[in-house]
């Protein structure tokens, strides 16, 4: 082994599929590194008398072979690459010496200067693998924290599209149905945000992370498909038409929806229409308001010993409306959590129906208006008082209404 700080490391991408990689040590360092080695398809051999529960689970699942004993000379036989990560420097030195002897590139986590290979800070975004190594020369010594910070910045930039990386491949002109989350712009997925940054046309709802629209470059056409509760600024037909026309014109279209596209979002109707027109559709799930709005307000939709189920229900029509598909008497008999969307207008009738079918009058209720947004507010009530409380407090849509004992669980943030 040679210590050499005069020359920078030579970066390379190892194609480890089916090739033997030996990991010596089953602690937290191995735990951190194993997933990437598994993802690369390496034939993994772990040598360690003990391992963390997560590493054990990988062995149990057959993802790697575990020799449950201390390292001994000869373990690196047939290896292409080795990771030496025990907490015993002597063991590490012996394993690294064997690697050197066998000309196996070896990462040594206790003393990088004595290792023949270094692990870069890696990340993946937008179909790109990012690997950052700081130089490691005398003038610019290794700085793993800086490498990790740079990696994070590059991954974040690629993910949200702020780091321009033009793709040299034909554009598909398809439509991405993107769930934008409940409203806070930070609650969109990284994939959703990246597709938004790459879009030519964005067709956006009133709900969802509208702040993100401000970040779009001026050439991006934003179509406002704002649907107001109980009425429509633009009929679904017109939305579908806009999606189809723009996609057929070869544009990359994002249909940005609030929450998740398939939770009361008519996402499947749009997907079916697009597919019928031969337009490729990508679905990007989003964080539904049904779970996230209660969560941010400190209400878990399930809680051990309190609720073993939660049911998400649309309250856009009253329980006695012939169009209602909801079995309200059955819901009243449940002990679990009820999460109501689009239910502000009918909350009085809904509460009456649940009470009439046996749900206790003192069941806690939380009305969560404009959750995750700067204007968020919470109004607490019981099933008996919710009609009056909602009226007196002027609760308006959009609101998620949570009914059940979970409302009383936990501290209010
Ligand atoms: C047409 S549904 C769409 C639901 C959406 N697809 C989802 O997964 O969250 C609209 C309803 O979602 C709820 N909602 C969506 N965003 C909300 C928010 N930020 N705060 C409270 N309620 C919200 C309200 O009940 C609203 O009336």
UniProtKB/TrEMBL annotation:
What pathway is this protein a component of?
A: Porphyrin-containing compound metabolism; siroheme biosynthesis; sirohydrochlorin from precorrin-2: step 1/1
Occurrences of domain Tetrapyrrole methylase (ranges): 175-386
Q: Which transformation does this protein catalyse, written as a reaction?
A: precorrin-2 + NAD(+) = sirohydrochlorin + NADH + 2 H(+)
Indicate whether Chloroplast appears among the record's keywords. Answer: no
Q: Which residues form the active site?
A: 205 (proton acceptor), 227 (proton donor)
Name the gene. cobA
Enzyme Commission number(s) of this protein = 2.1.1.107
Query: Which family does the entry's similarity section mention?
Result: Belongs to the precorrin methyltransferase family.
Entry's InterPro entries?
A: 4pyrrol_Mease (IPR000878), 4pyrrol_Methylase_sf (IPR035996), 4pyrrole_Mease_sub1 (IPR014777), 4pyrrole_Mease_sub2 (IPR014776), CobA/CysG_C (IPR006366), NAD(P)-bd_dom_sf (IPR036291), Siro_Cobalamin_biosynth (IPR050161), Sirohaem_synth (IPR012409)
Q: Which organism is it from?
A: Streptomyces boncukensis
Q: Name one GO molecular function term.
A: sirohydrochlorin ferrochelatase activity
Report any Pfam family annotated for this entry.
NAD_binding_7
A biological process (GO) annotation for this entry?
Answer: siroheme biosynthetic process
Record-given protein name: Uroporphyrinogen-III C-methyltransferase
Q: Give the keywords, sorted.
A: Cobalamin biosynthesis, Lyase, Methyltransferase, Multifunctional enzyme, NAD, Oxidoreductase, Porphyrin biosynthesis, S-adenosyl-L-methionine, Transferase
